[in-house]
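Students often ask why we bother encoding 3D structure as a string. The short answer is that it lets us treat folding as translation between two languages. Here is a chain of 219 residues written in the first language.
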Amino acid sequence: MTEKQVVSKKRVVEHGEVYTGKQEVNAMLDLVKQETERIESRFLEPACGTGNFLTEILKRKLRVVELRYSKSQLDYERYGVLAVSSVYGIDILEDNVEECHKRLFDIFDQKYSNLFKKAAKEECRDAVKYILERNIICGNALTLKTADQNPQPIVFSEWSPVNGNMIKRRDFAFHKLLSHARMRAMPLFSDLGEDVFIPTPVKEFSIVHFLRVADAEQK
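And here it is in the second language, the structure alphabet:
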């Protein structure tokens, strides 16, 4: 089957929308193959479309999770959620964002359900859905603001594992992450030591169990 790279001429003219083919995506990802297979390595696609890059990255990460942790459901869930939490995207078109959410969730859910069948937990699926809603944003990567009737600065959440099964969420304004020139050649969130720019979060949340990430927002 031929891959669809253009939805319509109108979208190409108005938004420059042309999807990258799977062969090209994998060739580009192979240039950073080691990072795509590191579960916690974060990736941001500023014009993600329906997720051609992000879906392939997540597939690679989940293959590593399955290889290492499939014998323990809790370990697979923990590292599977961590893998999902490491992919970020922005797209200006709402239907693309919705499709990207769906594709990423379906990739996780298919692997998870096939491995653990009736033992698979809805709370794990809900945690993945919640993280994807936070990580894949309808916005304008040029203005660094959301793409809606009342544009606001784009805010991304950092999800950091703490003490085994716990997770810490911190929210960062995207424009502040990019405000320091040195950050442009670094990961989305840097943990490289004292000699780098360390952004200040706009909000911090309570540490919670990784399956209950949505609960932190209620506290």
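Translate back mentally: The first strand starts at residue 43 and ends at 45. Keep this in mind for the problem set.
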